[in-house]
């Protein structure tokens, strides 16, 4: 344990500072496909009864019309966040007529690419922009890849905690810059250690055989309808043969916020020849927003992002440039198909401890080959993380995954203890013990349990997933929401539809001008 890490632990353990740990903010975004009763992708429009996918604050769509996304409000309590997520699931489940929420991350049996419906957001300029952006994703990466679902975990430490750290470490920069620099340091450590999350929580070792559309692969056949890797933890986070695109060479720098912003700004303003050949329009119809490496900054598929809540009409890069980093969004988490919400309190508590560890631990700059070894470690774990005797690269040393994982859990233990002292009880310590058991016994990991369940029941991936989806639907529908909560969601739905209608009634200028202004907004950041 380094001197700085020990000093920070002691500082947060002080009686005056300990309560700050109860003010961390959490938010969860859970994506899930809608499927019909036979486990096929629902081709129906986004249910109007759920509200407008464009303007609803908690129920929207991601890539496809059939890919729902549930967004919780932020809360200081993990339990409250999960309660909010459960309320959304219960409301949606009771409104889906003959349809289910698909339980795992990897998609159901999909129709041909042309048939997969791209999400639509109405006729307003912003609604059309979101649709054209998704058309561009289809051109660049294919529709099939966009049907993968995941869980995004949003987390922030209270600003008062950053101020306490700054008082004892560095008074030479503004509070905003201190906070941003330390969130970027957190992200560097996340890059170093996120392989551990894939081992502990990866839950996609298998997929429907049709997913790869005949592309070459190195997966093995589980049965007639299922492909898998015997020691995989998260095929969702593997390359799956989809690395032949402009993003393959894009590696934003996480050594400081300015260079991160600059690398993304350059990507959204630099033409990419294969996309230039396609063009932005064909016969007057928009195909993609532009022909650059990225259409917009959110197109970059990163495992974690620095974030700042944006104002209306503001782009993410603009928000980060103007006001610095406010929170991080961890994006590499699989949906656990055994859990109705895809995540539970034990996982969330460990994520808190893990992210705080990444924030407090020393975080030297990523230099030389370390970036590459971080990526290689991550990819090795998602493909073969449960392989006995698997080694990873820790600096210049090759180490057993099992040994390194145990060492990391020991380092995280004091943070779990601090969180338990702050919140009362021993829930964080119990979560840590559950993770230790997974390291000691790989058969207890979600990825191993998925394969064991499929073998025990003689089920294909899709049959297993559909059974879980039906069981979860029964649980959600067995206990209906209170009249008050039901009315709340019905009001949100009605208000969102009214808000979309208002946007469509009052367009300003034409769509081409709107897109041009949106693209130009990034150019003002050159040289910032």
What does this structure look like?
This protein has 528 residues and is α+β, with helices and mostly antiparallel strands. It has one domain: Creatine Kinase, Chain A, domain 2, CATH 3.30.590.20. A hairpin with a 2-residue loop joins strand 9 and strand 10. The radius of gyration is 23 Å and the shape is globular. The two termini are 38 Å apart. It catalyses: L-cysteine + L-glutamate + ATP = gamma-L-glutamyl-L-cysteine + ADP + phosphate + H(+).
Distance between the termini: 38 Å
Structural class: alpha+beta
The CATH architecture classification is 2-Layer Sandwich
Low-confidence segments, given as residue ranges, are 524-528
Question: Please, how many domains?
Answer: 1
CATH class division: Alpha Beta
Total helical segments: 17
| Percent helix range | 40-55%
Question: What fraction of the residues are assigned to beta strands by DSSP?
Answer: 5-15%
- In CATH, the topology is named Creatine Kinase, Chain A, domain 2
The overall pLDDT, averaged over residues, is 94
Key terms:
three-stranded antiparallel β-sheet, disordered C terminus, seven-stranded antiparallel β-sheet, Creatine Kinase, Chain A, domain 2, alpha+beta, globular, 528 residues
Can you give me a brief rundown of this structure?
The chain has a single domain (about 5-230, about 250-525), classed as Creatine Kinase, Chain A, domain 2 (2-Layer Sandwich), CATH 3.30.590. About 45% of the residues lie in helices and about 10% in strands. The protein has 17 helices and 14 strands.
């Amino acid at each position: 344990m380094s001197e700085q890490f020990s000093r920070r632990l002691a500082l947060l353990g002080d009686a005056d500072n300990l309560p700050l740990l109860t003010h961390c903010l959490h938010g969860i975004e859970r994506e899930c496909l809608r499927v019909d009763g036979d486990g096929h992708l629902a081709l129906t429009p986004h249910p109007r009864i759920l509200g407008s996918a464009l303007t609803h604050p908690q129920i929207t769509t991601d890539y496809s019309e059939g890919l729902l996304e549930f967004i919780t409000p932020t809360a200081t309590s993990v339990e409250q966040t999960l309660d909010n997520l459960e309320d959304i699931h219960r409301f949606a489940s009771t409104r889906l007529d003959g349809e289910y929420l698909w339980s795992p991350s990897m998609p159901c049996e999909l129709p041909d690419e042309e048939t997969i419906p791209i999400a639509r957001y109405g006729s307003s300029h912003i609604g059309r922009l979101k649709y054209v952006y998704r058309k561009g994703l289809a051109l660049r990466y294919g529709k099939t890849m966009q049907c993968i679902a995941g869980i995004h975990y949003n987390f922030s430490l209270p600003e008062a905690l950053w101020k306490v750290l700054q008082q004892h470490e560095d008074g030479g920069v503004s509070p905003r810059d201190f906070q941003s620099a330390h969130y970027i340091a957190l992200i560097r450590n996340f890059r170093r250690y996120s392989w551990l999350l894939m081992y502990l929580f990866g839950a996609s070792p298998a997929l429907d055989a049709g997913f790869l559309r005949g592309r070459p692969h190195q997966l093995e056949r589980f049965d007639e309808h299922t492909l898998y890797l015997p020691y995989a933890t998260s095929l969702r986070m593997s390359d799956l043969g989809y690395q032949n695109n402009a993003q393959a060479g894009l590696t934003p720098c996480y050594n400081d916020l300015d260079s991160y912003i600059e690398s993304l700004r350059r990507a959204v303003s630099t033409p990419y020849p294969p996309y230039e050949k396609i063009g932005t329009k064909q016969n007057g119809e928009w195909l993609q927003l532009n022909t650059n490496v990225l259409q917009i900054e959110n197109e970059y598929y990163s495992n974690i992002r620095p974030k700042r809540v944006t104002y209306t009409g503001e782009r993410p890069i603009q928000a980060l440039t103007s006001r610095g980093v406010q929170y991080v969004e961890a994006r590499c988490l699989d949906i656990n198909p055994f859990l109705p919400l895809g995540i539970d309190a034990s996982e969330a508590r460990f994520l808190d401890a893990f992210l705080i560890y990444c924030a407090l631990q020393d975080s030297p700059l990523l230099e030389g080959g370390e970036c590459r070894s971080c990526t290689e470690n991550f990819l090795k774990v998602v493909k073969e993380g449960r392989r006995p005797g698997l080694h990873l690269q820790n600096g210049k040393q090759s180490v057993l995954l099992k040994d390194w994982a145990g060492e990391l859990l020991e380092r995280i233990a004091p943070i779990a203890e601090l969180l338990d002292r702050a919140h009362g009880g021993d829930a964080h310590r119990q979560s840590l013990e559950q993770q230790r058991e997974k390291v000691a016994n790989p058969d207890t990991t979600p990825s191993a349990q998925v394969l064991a369940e499929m073998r025990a029941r003689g089920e294909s991936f899709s049959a297993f997933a559909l059974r879980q989806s039906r069981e979860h639907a029964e649980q959600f529908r067995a206990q209906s929401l209170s009249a008050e909560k039901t009315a709340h969601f019905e009001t949100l739905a009605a208000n969102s539809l009214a808000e979309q209608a208002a946007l469509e009634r009052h367009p300003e200028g034409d769509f081409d001008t709107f897109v041009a202004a949106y693209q130009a907004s990034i150019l003002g950041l050159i040289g910032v």
